[in-house]
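Why should sequence recovery work at all? Because a backbone constrains its sequence more than one might expect. Tight turns favour small or flexible residues, buried strands favour hydrophobic ones, and helices have their own preferences. The token representation captures these environments compactly. In the example below, the structure is given first.
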């Protein structure tokens, strides 16, 4: 992938872009092999490669410049404002939407927020697109409600220009700190969710619910998990009860469960749980129970293990307390999806009663050192 911003050293976010993509993938596989070497890892499966550009369906853009000449991008290490509306990581459909956002900023007199002076109103533009429908969710992160009326007044113009806009909202982030978004979300459209569909599984994304930045790779990740579990059940028999901890909008659990099986999904965010529950209902799943709870607290209070435990923690990993409860509960099988191989290795050292059966790398974040890992673990006899 060629990027003029990287070539000019204006933006180095894709810090591995100077390496050929095949070399990037090989280096990631080598790093993963090294991290998992202490755990008697079977041979790692072939990594799942990413598209090299146009794969990122979620943009987080700092709003810079002026009302008359707004910019969407970053402030780089040199303190320069860099417009990334033409960033090749995004699909082609993002560029005209960014252009409309700039026109909307000027039309509504939305002053870009200035960190140094702590003046201005608009801090970020957050844009997501559904791979399935091509529709968009657009969020304006504001310092206050001062410009809310102006946004509401001119929103019909934006929707007329962009009929693919499904969801639009304002997020209030009043703190003068490097925090992406605040707790309060003000919905501006009748529709509150962006519909996605991966592998014929409906998923619903609300403004503050987490979803992978690369839906094509997420689909591959979920399908691989389903394939591994199906292969396992052909030998072991069908699991009666599955837990999905850190379940988000239900991506893993809904791919794994059949109508005859029980699924318990746990996620701290109520809006994500509402989305997962809606998806389960559409699929006609009646033995599914999604709950808005802390995953570590849920496991600590549990007395009986599921047949299969699925975990997809944030970058910090499971942590010692949750690993201890997994050891205590001792589910026969553990499916662990990680976005941080270092914390995965730390957690595996705590899960001494489990052995690795399968490991596969998914290159969710091309041109960077980050990647996703899917592992299948079996409880030792």
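From this structural description, the recovered sequence reads:
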């Amino acid at each position: 992938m060629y990027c003029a911003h990287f070539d000019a050293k204006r933006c180095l976010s894709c810090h591995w872009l100077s390496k050929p993509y095949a070399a990037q993938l090989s280096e990631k596989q080598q790093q993963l092999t090294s991290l998992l070497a202490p755990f008697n890892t079977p041979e790692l499966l072939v990594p799942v490669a990413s598209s090299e550009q146009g794969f990122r369906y979620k943009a987080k853009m700092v709003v810079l410049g002026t009302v008359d000449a707004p910019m969407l991008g970053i402030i780089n290490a040199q303190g320069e404002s860099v417009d990334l509306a033409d960033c090749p990581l995004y699909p082609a459909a993002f560029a005209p939407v960014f252009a409309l956002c700039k026109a909307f900023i000027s039309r509504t007199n939305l002053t870009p927020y200035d960190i140094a002076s702590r003046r201005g109103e608009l801090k970020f533009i957050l844009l997501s697109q559904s791979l399935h429908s091509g529709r968009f969710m657009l969020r304006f992160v504001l310092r206050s409600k001062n410009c809310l009326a102006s946004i509401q007044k001119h929103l019909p113009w934006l929707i007329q220009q962009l009929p693919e806009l499904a969801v639009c909202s304002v997020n209030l982030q009043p703190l003068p700190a490097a925090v992406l978004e605040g707790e309060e979300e003000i919905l501006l459209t009748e529709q509150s969710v962006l519909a996605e569909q991966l592998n014929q599984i409906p998923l619903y994304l609300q403004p503050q619910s987490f979803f992978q930045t690369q839906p094509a790779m997420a689909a591959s990740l979920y399908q691989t998990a389903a394939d591994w579990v199906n292969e396992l059940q052909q030998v072991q028999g069908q699991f009666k009860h599955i837990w999905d901890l850190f379940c988000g909008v239900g991506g893993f659990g809904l791919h794994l469960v059949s109508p005859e099986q029980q699924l318990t999904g746990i996620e701290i965010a109520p809006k994500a749980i509402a989305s997962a529950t809606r998806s389960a209902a559409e699929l006609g799943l009646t033995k599914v129970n999604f709950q808005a709870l802390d995953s570590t607290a849920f496991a600590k209070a549990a007395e009986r293990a599921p047949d299969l435990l699925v975990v997809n923690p944030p970058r910090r990993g499971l942590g010692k307390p949750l690993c201890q409860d997994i050891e205590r509960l001792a589910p026969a099988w553990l499916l662990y999806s990680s976005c941080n191989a270092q914390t995965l290795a730390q957690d595996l050292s705590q899960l001494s009663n489990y052995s690795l059966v399968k490991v596969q790398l998914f290159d969710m974040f091309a041109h960077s050192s980050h990647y996703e890992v899917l592992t299948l673990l079996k409880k030792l006899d």
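A few observations help interpret the result. Residues 245 and 266 are 5 Å apart (CA to CA).
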